[in-house]
Amino acid sequence: MRMPRPEPGAEPRLDLSIRRMGPSDLEPVMRVERLAFKSPWSAELFQRELLHDWSTILIAGPPGEPDVYGFLIYWSVHDEVHILNIATDPLHRRRRVARRLMVAALEQGRARGARLVTLEVRRSNLPAITLYRDLGFRAVGIRPNYYADEGEDAVVMNLDL
Ligand SMILES: CC(C)(COP(=O)(O)OP(=O)(O)OC[C@H]1O[C@@H](n2cnc3c(N)ncnc32)[C@H](O)[C@@H]1OP(=O)(O)O)[C@@H](O)C(=O)NCCC(=O)NCCS
Question: How far is the CA of 24 from the centre of ligand 1 (A)?
Answer without folding.
Answer: 26
